[in-house]
Amino acid sequence: MRTSKIILAASAGLAAALTIAPASAQNLSFSQVERGRYLATVGNCAGCHTDEVNDGERFAGGREMETPFGSIYTPNITFDNETGLGLWTRDDFYRAMNEGIARDGSHLYPAFPYPYFTLMPRQEIDAIYDYLSSIEPVYSETPEPQFPFPLNIRQAVMGWNLLYFEPQEFVPDPEQSDEWNRGRYLVDGPAHCGACHTDKNFAGADIEDEYLRGGVLEDWLAPNIRGGENGGIAHWSEDDIVAFLEGGRNDHTGVMPRMGEVVVLSTQYMETADLEAIAIYLKTLDDEARDPVEQPSEAIMTAGGGIYFDNCAACHASDGTGVPEIFAPLAGSNKVNAEDPITMLRVILEGTLAVPTNDNPGPIGMPAFDWKLTDQQIADLATFLRASWGNSAPAVSEGEVADLRERLEE
């Protein structure tokens, strides 16, 4: 009512200013929050900062993340004043994302992917801040990291940063298209693909020469995703990459648990144009041809082939071609051909369930064979798969299977 009286008393020009300005501010606020929501989705913030195992609240943290050095628990990123970001300013949040330094000046462990987020411009980080501030605050305390001395002293991260980190902005390559640059920015920045798909050194930092050539995380292999000549997904088209990221399935494979979480919470909600940009970029990444491996003995191939035809061929076909978008082909599979066979062995031991997505709501499963096959039988089967139908990867030993089985049973 008071606003109406002011407008009636004002000149036409002043009235226009009074009525238009609040509407513009509302639109700007909404678009900023929506932009932040999208960026938080690209970065899969909910995936790490939600403790699904213990039915935790969204973004309230508490999820245990296993690292080679011990377990770390993700913090509460809702705007609760006591346990979350409620007292953080935009500058505090930007410093954490850009430099890995918290509001109190302590150093964040690089399990938080600030080495990737540093590429994000201030405007995008501010948008994420505004989005998170719009969410209902949740009181949720974060457990302390379970790291041995001296890693439990956060100041130790200063040395890590000196060796392996430098804040930087994303610089487009003028020789490449806008789509290529957008794809590279998404891969290296907010989507932080290298956090899983790039192998790490003894200190947990990316090995530059292993960029997107695959890495092991929590006994899963994040495979080689270089899409150019000799790359792990060289046989995938750009459309295949988009289909996988958008729906969790394509003619070559179905998404498995760790990456399944990324698809379910992140990539299936990304704009198709952004997924296409990622595909364009990945398809330009060539790789070195691998040296040929020694062909397994006839005895192993015979034993492994027999196990395959008894247990696997009904779904994956006698020639390993599978059934498109239902049963993954084993011929040419980047998981079967990976230097490290851990994902393939884990799937054989535990089975797996392709996660349902909006485009493919019906989950597809593979049964476990740990109860049925011995370590030697699984090794023979895996070796057979890695040396058949054009596949070429090192043989698998009984000891590798036994070690993995023991770890999974712990």
TrEMBL record:
PROSITE patterns annotated for this entry? Answer: CYTC (PS51007)
Q: Could you say which residues bind heme c 3 here?
A: C312, C315, H316
Residue stretches making up the Cytochrome c domain: 31-136, 178-286, 299-389
Which is one Gene Ontology cellular component term of this protein? plasma membrane
How, per the record, is the cofactor bound? Binds 3 heme c groups covalently per subunit.
What keyword terms does UniProt attach to this protein?
Answer: Cell membrane, Electron transport, Heme, Iron, Membrane, Metal-binding, Repeat, Respiratory chain, Signal, Transport
Q: Where in the cell is it found?
A: Cell membrane
The main place the protein resides is membrane
Residue positions annotated to bind heme c 2 are C193, C196, H197
Query: Which InterPro entries does the record match to this protein?
Result: Cyt_c-like_dom, Cyt_c-like_dom_sf, Cyt_C_IC, Cytochrome_c-type_DH, Membr-bd_ADH_cyt_c
- Does the UniProt entry include the keyword Kinase? no
Cofactor(s) annotated in UniProt: heme c
GO molecular function term, any single one = heme binding
Residues binding heme c 1, per UniProt: C45, C48, H49
Annotated signal sequence range: 1-25
Identify this protein by name. Cytochrome c, mono-and diheme variants
**Organism whose genome encodes this protein:** Pelagibacterium luteolum
